[in-house]
Structures are given as structure tokens and as C-alpha cells.
Amino acid sequence: MTSDDSAPDGGTADEVSSGEADGGVALDPWGSATVGDYRNLFEEFGIEEFDEIIDRVPDPHYLMRRGVIFGHRGYDAVADAMREGEDVAALSGFMPTGDPHIGHKLVFDELIWHQEHGADTYGLIADLEAHSARGMTWAEIDEHARDYLLSLLALGFDAEEGTLYRQSTNRELQDLAFELGAKARFAEFEGIYGFGGGTSVSHMQSVVTQMADILYPQLVDEPKPTVIPVGPDQDPHVRFSRDIAARMRYFKVTDAFASFELDDDERRVVAVAYDDREEYAADADTPRCEEAAEYIRGDPGGLDAAADVIDSTIEKLENAGMEPLRPRVRFFDRNATDEAFEALIEAVDGEKRVFEAHVDAFDLDRTAAEELAREIEVDHDGFGFVAPSSIYHRFMTGLTGGKMSSSVPASHISLLDDPEDGYDKVMAATTGGRDTAEEQRELGGRADECPVYELYAYLLAGDDDDFAELVYDECVGGERLCGDCKEQAAGLMREFLAEHQEKREEAEEVLADLDIDLDVDASRRGIAPTAEE
């Protein structure tokens, strides 16, 4: 959920591990490889394609339009809320282990765009993570934290409308992390992050703190759709936070068809059988469980489930015998107080059945049931968290052709670089051009493999899609040669850095007026821990 010099969710490729042993991709927030094929993320981790929902996004950012933002988890809820003028939030964090650079600018821009579209927006300095996972001293963290905040403000973050904070000085956040930690188990840290006996307790605590960061906007105000803009390396944090958010809820709301419980896969099978009830039920108004079991056993088609799911579903239906199949919404008691459970029973209108640990409602749809459950929870001092959403952007290629890495100065451009140095780095960059000008004119350039073209698409073309498209078309059409293209890009980069640094100077006064501690080192003395391998 955070970005740093070696692992920025802001766009370098340092933090994604490629799990080639099993032919897949392993996402590791502290790893050191690249994602070779973003399509694998859809199949292996359930990340959804952003193109499928972009039409629901009001005034999409150019990173969305150009496919730089390529995936999401649950962002449709955020997009719909923005379009309807409802409350939403956006949050991302930055691990201050070095200078902010052009990769981080992706996340800065995404936060600012959401703020401009009405979101309650949060930017945080992940200093606890930097100290525990990267071994940074507090003095180093203080210096870099200041630089991140200045660049975020210089790019347009409105500090009066948004919220900026440091993990280490936010007591409310730390209290939330403690509560969330009660729902996390060490086995999950092993399975998700590969933590083991050599992992420091502080590193594990920093992960729980990130879970609290992700949910913090809903603690400050009220439950609402919240988006976390990140690189795909941070997806484990997003998935974990969605699980933890669900475990904190007082009630779990599901669809049900009878008195017994079904898992999600079994429920889909029974839903198909219920929809087809006229084909097998003696009385279509009252289909029986054993009738549905016999129908499913006959393999009617459209079930789309594994054999073991079919077998377990049939067994449960047969055990229920002549009990009617009847759709209802079920409220499970997860963590509710006695008072909250009684309040829920009282609040459910229409026909209902009350059991020791759940309530079945026959006259509520799923959406209304979810709203009721959250309302009761919040009224009885629960959190009522909405599952956090995320959007994922592609990593920027290093200017030298490999990974963009802080350990290779020529591969990246710091937002603090002298404008002339930025110009020189672009001029020295690798391109996707051919070996000779003649080949370039004949075959066209390889813009899709060109770090310089990425600079246009990700930054230098700004909101001008026509300009970005022109550069691309001229390149692949053989009209644009690499020398001229780099000269133009280098000039634009010099202009950008000069303007950005002027705005950083203007942001000094804004930062000085903010209620954020930039000298944590004064109160936190000690030897920096050794970061785990």
C-alpha cells in the first residue's frame, strides 16, 4: 500500500516478484523483480480489468484513458458513488526511504484527481514501515518525509481539503491497528508475505498498521467506498485488508435458500436450480430440496461448478428432504453485541425467522439488507467498514531499459533532480528505436518497448491525449526518429522539473502551517533495526 525508492507503488518495478517456478506471478511488497505479463494478474489474483468499468468513471484521468491504470478491485463501487455525488475516499502512502521520483508522481496524480472529483483524500508517510522493514533511521525518515510531502503539495494536493499524516504520530490509527490485529493470525503472515522465524515483530506490526491505514478514512468520518491507488506489488495488502474489514463486521449478509448453510459455490448451484424450478417441481411455487437435488444430479447444464461442489450441494439438499427452497437474506452474527443483535431483529420488517446465531429475512433484498446491517452496526459502536477498493497502474521502465531503481541513478529521474540533470538523463535513455535511421523509417519504432515513449504517456503529454497519440503514431510509422524524440522529451522534462521545484518552494509555507510532525527523530532515538532479507 506504500511506495518507497526501491518499492514504489508509484511506478517502479522493484517490488514485484516473478514466481516462475510454477509459471505464475508472485506479488511481494518487499520483493525484487518485475511483472512480465499483467494478464496473469487477472487470472491468478482476481484483479479485474479497468477497461471494463472505465465508462462508469466520471471524467477519467489520462492514466485511465491510456491504459496505464490497467486493473482494479471493487472500484466500480467508487466510480458509481462519484458519479452519483455520494461520499467516497482515496488514500495512498509513501515509504520515505529516498527521494520522490517520477514513478511516485503516478500515485500523487491519482490522489489529486480523486480529490478534485470530490473524494476525501488522505496521503500518509509510512514511517513505521520504513523503520521496521527497511532499517531507516528516524533522522533519514524525517528528511525524506518532508520531500514527499512537498512534492505532493507542489503537484496540487489541497492540504485544507485533504488529510496528511505520519503513522508514528497518529494515535487513532495505532489504536485501530491494535483492534485489527486481533483478527489477524500469524499463519496469514506466513501465507501472504512469507514471514517466518526471522521476521521481526515490528515488521509484522507495520503490516497491521497498513491495514489500519487502508481503513482509516472510514474511521475518521463514516463507512464509505474507499480507493487505494497502488502498483500491483501492493495487492497482498489490499486483499488482506478486505478480509480483515469483513472480519470486523458485526454481521455477514448472504443469500440463502433453506435453513442449512451453503458456501458461495454451492449457493450458485442452488440458485440455478431454483431458477429452473418449473422444470422439475411438483409445485413450482414451493420447490422441495430433495426435488432440486434430483434435478442437479441429472446434470441439467448451466451449473458451472466442480464435481465436489455438485456432490456437496446434492448431499445438503437431500438431507433437508421436503423442506421448501425459498430465497431469503441471511444475517449471520459475527461480532455483534447482544444489544446490536436484538436491534437487528427488531429492525427487520416483514416475515423473518430468528435463530441463535442468524436471522433470515424474506422481504428484504440484498442491498437493503447490507444497508440495514451497517446502520445497526454503526449505531451500536461498530465500524461498519465497506470493503476497500483499489486501482493498479503499470510500472515505469527504467531509463536504462531495465527496472527503474533508486540504486541505478541513471534509471530514474528524481523530482529533486536539477532540471539539467533530468534533461541529460532523458538524452542518455534507451529507446525502442531501430539500429539505423533507415530501418526506423522503413519498419517504424517500437514505442511499446520504449522508456522514452513511456515518459510521454505517463507524464510529459499531460492531459493531451492527441499529443501522446501523435508521438506514438509517428514513432511506429517511422516518421519520428529517436534523436529528435529524445530531444523533445528531454526539453519537456527540464521544463517540468523546473516548474515543479518552483512549486515545491511555494509549498514550503503551506507545509510549515500543517499540523504534521517533521522532526520525529527528536523523540525517537535508537538504533535502526536490520531489515529482513
Automatic annotation (TrEMBL):
Signal peptide: none annotated. It catalyses: tRNA(Trp) + L-tryptophan + ATP = L-tryptophyl-tRNA(Trp) + AMP + diphosphate + H(+). Its EC number is 6.1.1.2. Residues 1-28 are annotated as: Disordered. A motif ('HIGH' region) lies at residues 96-104. It is found in: Cytoplasm. Keywords: Aminoacyl-tRNA synthetase, ATP-binding, Cytoplasm, Ligase, Nucleotide-binding, Protein biosynthesis. It is an enzyme of class 6 (ligase). One of its GO terms (biological process) is tryptophanyl-tRNA aminoacylation. InterPro entries: aa-tRNA-synth_Ic, Rossmann-like_a/b/a_fold, Trp-tRNA-ligase, Tryptophan-tRNA-ligase_arc. GO terms for cellular component: cytoplasm. A motif ('KMSKS' region) lies at residues 403-407. One of its GO terms (molecular function) is tryptophan-tRNA ligase activity. Catalyzes the attachment of tryptophan to tRNA(Trp). Belongs to the class-I aminoacyl-tRNA synthetase family. This is Tryptophan--tRNA ligase. The gene is trpS.
